[in-house]
Design brief:
By secondary structure, this protein is an alpha/beta fold. The chain contains 14 helices and 22 strands. Helix 7 links the parallel strand 10 and strand 11. Bound molecules: flavin-adenine dinucleotide.
């Protein structure tokens, strides 16, 4: 006989496990199914967490070599790549086990296996040749995303790697060619550059990180170049051939000029695509959009009653916290509450050094929408804390409505930007004016004072530059 649940969640990533936890909290009988064998999804297993562990370790490695002497510290530094990878693996293991603990604590059953929607209200889970049937009043699809393929290129995760392979290289390549100048390519490119690789980023567009505010993006690229990363913009990769240990990568510029570049490792990071394979969506009648994303209404309901979708498999930014926010809102809607996500207040971060973080609208978006705005900026070279920690690269930028002074966007290029942006998210969530930030006391000396000073600059009364 089939087990019955109020909510069955397919996928155990930040969308899925948070949905199951929230359902448990609200007294709903919930199950969370993942075929991976370890919970936490892309984020904990092969995404956010392992990449941040390597970014942290490689940043310390480079800092110890290049920055320590400036601070009066003499050290002999040697790379132990296996131990660095061991740190990453340990962190991933602890956090994925933590998710299982949280599911249990909130009385949601964690089920390992591949789930298929047999019909609305019925999910079949297969694992190691066994089959289990679940009845569900509500099914939440949270199956995430997968690496977008580069036409004509086969990823072998040895020489031609996706982000997954780039998180587990066993030696530092002499040369790495990164296809795609988005945040994943720049983060992983930074890891391997710091550890000794010569990194070249080939980007199809005429700029890196296309979603970022243009001024921030330009400043970011300049800093990465200063660090030694190389860029070929307006250039596409058209093919790759293996010649023993060497890859010969064919590229073509916007002007039609072709050339072949030799490299040791090629990282394909041109984006991610929604993952909904083998779910039975066509049979269940669930509608997908032309990009393969599950179509939902603003409450996360699909066109089939009782089937919902959240996270990377539906539209919107592919970010762990966006999936988490949708999970909470979706389950609250199922429970009869008023779940809602404010997409304008979802921050995005690139965890390089310096970090880049943004929330709200960019200048380009405001121009396109014809909204009049004012800008305040403040450089970290004028920030006392940035001086003391020798991290003066970058600036903070606050954009406010020209008439009402409401904060429309905050963009930060600088150390710790990823932590500081939450102040911006809160400002946007609360509908703050730039003057509210300018008049809010910020502890001294902190990097976040730069956001206050940039807010003061909106009205032209910066105190520290
Ligand atoms: P996922 O985390 O992809 O989880 C989906 C799960 O569903 C998977 O575990 C899969 O095994 C399971 N599944 C699929 N089909 C089935 C099925 N039929 N049956 C059972 N289980 C199934 N985001 C950030 O916000 N910050 C970052 O710093 C960040 N860094 C990243 C770095 C890298 C290298 C990558 C690749 C991604 C990064 N992301 C980051 C993106 C983030 O990982 C995703 O946005 C997030 O994981 C999406 O969550 P999700 O729950 O929608 O899906």
């Amino acid at each position: 006989m089939a087990d019955s649940f109020d909510v069955v969640v397919i996928g155990g990533g930040p969308g899925g496990y948070n949905a199951a936890i929230r359902a448990g909290q609200l007294g709903l009988k919930a199950a969370c199914i993942d075929k991976r064998g370890s919970f936490g999804g892309t984020c904990l297993n092969i995404g956010c967490i392992p990449s941040k562990a390597l970014l942290h370790a490689s940043e310390r490695f480079e800092e110890a070599q290049k920055e320590f002497p400036k601070l009066g510290i003499k050290a002999t530094v040697e790379l132990d790549l296996a131990a660095m990878m061991g740190h990453k693996t340990k962190v991933v293991g602890e956090l994925t086990r933590g998710v299982e603990f949280l599911l249990k604590k909130n009385k949601a059953e964690a089920i390992v296996g591949e789930a298929r929607i047999a019909s609305p209200g019925k999910v079949v889970v297969t694992h190691n040749g066994t089959t289990r049937e679940l009845e569900a009043k509500h099914i939440i699809i949270a199956t995430g995303s997968d690496v977008a393929p580069l036409p004509g290129v086969t990823v072998d995760e040895q020489q031609i790697v996706s982000s997954t392979g780039a998180l587990s290289l066993t030696t530092v390549p002499k040369r790495m060619l990164v296809v795609g100048g988005g945040y994943i390519g720049l983060e992983l490119g930074s890891v391997w550059r710091r550890l000794g690789a010569d990194v070249l980023v080939v980007e199809f567009l005429d700029r890196i990180t296309p979603g970022l505010d243009g001024e921030i993006g330009k400043g970011f690229q300049r800093i990465l170049q200063k660090q030694g990363m190389k860029f070929m913009l307006s250039t596409k990769v058209t093919g790759v051939a293996k010649n023993g240990d060497v890859l010969r990568v064919n590229v073509e510029g916007a002007n039609g000029e072709k050339q072949t570049i030799e490299t040791d490792i090629m990282l394909v990071s041109i984006g991610r695509k929604p993952f909904t394979d083998n779910l039975g969506l066509a049979d269940a009648g669930v509608t997908l959009d032309p990009r393969g994303r599950i179509v939902t209404d603003a409450h996360f309901a699909t066109n089939v009653a009782g089937i919902w979708a959240i996270g990377d498999c539906r539209e919107g930014a592919m970010l762990a916290h966006k999936a988490e926010d949708e999970a909470v809102a979706c389950v609250e809607n199922i429970a009869g509450k008023a779940g809602h996500v404010n997409y304008n207040a979802i921050p995005a971060v690139v965890y390089t050094a310096p970090e880049v973080a943004s929330v709200g609208k960019t200048e380009e978006e405001l121009k396109a929408a014809g909204i009049a705005y004012k800008i305040g900026k403040f450089p970290f070279t004028a920030n006392a804390r940035a001086k003391t920690i020798a991290a003066t690269d970058g600036f903070a930028k606050v954009i406010a409505d020209a008439k009402t002074d409401q904060v429309l966007g905050i963009h930060i290029l600088g150390a710790n930007a990823g932590e500081m942006i939450c102040e911006g998210a809160l400002a946007i969530e609360f509908g703050a004016a730039s003057e509210d930030i300018a008049r809010t006391s910020h502890s001294h000396p902190t990097l976040s004072e730069a956001i206050r000073q940039a807010s003061m600059a909106v009205e032209g009364w910066t105190m520290q530059s």
